[in-house]
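Re: duplicated header lines in exported structure tokens

Our pipeline writes sequence and tokens for each protein into one text file. With two proteins the header for the second block appears twice in some exports. Here is an export where it did not happen, for reference. First protein block:
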Amino acid sequence: MFHIMFSLPGLYVIARFLWPLPLALPIKIGLGLAILVGSQYHLFCRLSSGSVFSPEMSRSAVIGFNWAFISILLLFFLQLLIDVLHISVKLAAGITLQVPSAVSSCSLGLGLLVIAAIGVRNAIVSPVVRHIEIAVRGLPEEFSGYRVLQLTDLHISRLFDQQWAQAVVRDANMIGADLIVVTGDLIDGSLQDRKLDVSPLKELRARDGIYFITGNHEFFFDHVDWLEEVQALGMTALENRHVVLRRGAGSLVLAGVTDLTASDTGFTGPDVRKAIANAPADAPIVLLDHQPKRASVAADLGISLQLSGHTHGGLAPVLDRLFALVNGGYVSGRYDVGGMQLYVSNGTALWPGFAFRLGKPPELTCVTLRRSMR
């Protein structure tokens, strides 16, 4: 049913956009077949690995499929908008609008193909370093200026492969952060398929270590095996627990929870209360939670700062409003949630099943903590 659903936009583009064009029949048939193939990108992913989340094909093929699939969707929504507008005007005013000329249709189509190409290119470029400062209530003087590097949604895969991971590790280490946190969706693929691709992460360096929490994609594969691998790479997994970081007489609590998907797959779901149980009462708490939608729960429990990802920044204008609907209104950047500071990263990468960004660049987020004057 999933793959049939995604064939419908392609069929609509063929019937309403391609077929009316004044092209030779063999060209129409060839383009129509190409559209049908492109619309089934996720079926080819499933055939390559058994999972729509792990395209085990060449990187160039993944890029090409993303461009084709996204182009089809853009053409579909454009044609649907035109058709709805025609019908609405016809019903409301009895006026039949002029059908766009072949030249206009081709120009619009080519424009959308270019936009899709730009969006895919923006999705796969190296992430920029984004420096932000966040005032944390109750932060000890010893931790003022403390730098936390957030990596999230790396989605290491055939698209974001070993070479890409090496570049990210190099850039991350050059920042020289006090602490590195990886807030979920580290991989797309089985341990067998991704072991070489994730190997550069063993070179990540930070004075106070590297900490990891699960995202939803960890539970699409073998969660237990991946947790073992993460720890073998030198990361410490925080599954509904915390650690206390110290600088002289000052303390800072770093807590982490499992992803919401955990409970749907037979594992323990996120539990903020458990994660902060027995934490020093006078120390501010930084919470790592992959999905931002439950930020109000953390705020009610006295968390000072929450770091999240998951949304990929909403990918593009307009789309980001849809992401907001299913993520508690939190999509990209910082928010004040009942006095708690929430930062939602655009992500270091994104899911290779829909690699598209416009105005929402990938990022390595360096968070500098400052004492709140309030």
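Second protein block, exported in the same file:
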Amino acid sequence: MKALDWTRDGGDWPNRTASRFVEAGGLRWHVQVAGDGPVLLLLHGTGAATHSWRALLPELATRYTVVAPDLPGHGFSATAASHRLTLQGIARALGGLLAALKAEPQVVAGHSAGAAIMLRMNIDGLLPARTLVSLNGAMLPLPGLAGLLFPPAARLLSALPFAPQAFAWRATQRDAVNRLIRSTGSALDPAGVALYHKLVSTPGHVAGALAMMANWDVAPLVRDLPSLRAPLTLVVGKGDETVSPEESRRVHRMIPGSRLVELDGLGHLAHEEAPALAARHIFEADESDGIAHR
């Protein structure tokens, strides 16, 4: 199955000079490392890759050593066996990557499903950070009938050998990708849309995203949320049409001491639409938590 190839597809990848490839836990990871200072880890969501941080990473690198991996099966990172693509499996794999990099993040920001991975890692003691920031986090089970039907449907699609090619073929039509981006409630510039087009028109990347969705189960995470070991700030675009802003509000109510920041006029990809604003809220969260740690 065709996957992204660094030699062929990485020539115009955002922040390319920060990229490196690391062997850890039986996987070959694509990781971007930039800046100087305390380590800040960025975790993208399902179907995305390090391109999602193309404008935010340089902002954060003015204060931190930023570490941003492509999740297994996404972007230029190798995929893993399906049993390793559970929420806990990905959390453990990322723990192995951080050990190989000798990186101990003090600050973590996770977007969408990346926020759930961040919380799982912290609860499991794999990420003893001082500051956690959720960016439009997808941390709760899907409500109602969708929650019952979506995981089996994703498992079925991931098991069909032609499904990734079919999705990728559909995505070769640029209008389909434009509609996909608009459906998130966000508006990206042509360069941002082109990067998503490159990803979702690649069968290997689509297969990685489907496999992750097929193995996704956040119910145990919800149960364990009271065991969170670090302060959490929830940043949410009020126009998010992919993950309802109410989800972040519910998590806020579930975790005493958490903070909720709502952004007008921004959707699910708020950190790509307004990277300077997202950076400001990450800086402010860390400054507040840093004072509390003294």
